[in-house]
Specification:
It is a single chain. The chain is built from 16 helices and no strands. The protein has 361 residues and is mainly alpha-helical. The chain has a single domain, classed as Amino acid/polyamine transporter I, CATH 1.20.1740. Helix 3 packs across helix 9 and helix 5 runs antiparallel to helix 14. The radius of gyration is 20 Å and the shape is globular.
Length: 361
Amino acid sequence: MNPTISRFQLFFLIIKTQIGIGLLSLPSKFQSTAKGDAWISVLISGVVIQLLLFVYWHLLKKFPNHTLSEITVRILGPYMGKALNLLYYAFFIVIAGYASTLYIQLVNNWMLSLTPGWVLLLLIIGTSVYLATENLRVIARFFVLTSVLFVLLLLISFLNFSNEMHFSNILPIGQSGVAQIFKGSESTFFSMLGFEVILYFSAQVQKSPRGLLSVISLANCFVTLFYTYFVFICLIGFSPKALQQVKEPVLFIFKGLTYQLFDRLDLIFLTIWIIPMTSTIVSYLCLAGKSLTASQSSYRKMIWISGVLIYLIAWYLSKLGNLDSFSKWFEYGYLIMIAAIPILLWMMSFLIKNNNKVGST
């Protein structure tokens, strides 16, 4: 029997998966669209994600104590269901490989420029595999323990207010127009992905259906406000032209802060940020393992195999140099896998008879 986790632990599993590398470069992506209204775009993305979470909740309520891999088989049958699970497995592996590539590029550019990429990949993926082989309760405890770093990151960000702030950059509110604000929310949506972990982790949560909805909604609210805050401080900390030229404004905004006791806050921030970035890979390794296996022994074997595949994918992507074209196709695939298919499964679930009671445990 798989160990259960509390709703409190699920909350941190969600936010630690969602908050990753996308936040660091997000503010610069808005300059061609939402500009000073970027913080509104973040809030809109949070609303869209909440609507999708309602669909997830209704689907999981129809099949209590089932993961998505089990739900697909129940709805589509053994052959189509397992084929879709294999597709999800490949999808999660590619996500982890892509994220790993972005991580090593960031670390190479800001900290360890002389360290070979394959070494960094080995360290990041090796550490992630080591943790992902444990049961979900152990992983959840680690995520909860390291979440205190978010408080430290927020405290570091407050030091930025000692710089000159330009609140005129966000005024007048709504200057970009409704169309551009909604267009900007698209970038935020893809930077806040990771909430789909509930489709696999919720089966091990000590919960009631209403309690599950509360915790996933609170997690989405936290992530949305967390992103909104960092986008906001970048908007008022940089001029629009400078923000468009800086690739990782969240890091760059701390680079100029110098104090007697410590220097280079950007490197301190990035060093702490490596843990949330690695947590994202751990979560997707778990999703990959759970999408194809049921027993803990076969799950661990699958994690090791997945780790090797992720390493090879990340190594290949790191050789491409420019990932823009890959990122665009990747986003389309993400919309299909985390939005279109779950919505379709939820609609199809009304066509089959489900004898499970909503509140069963």
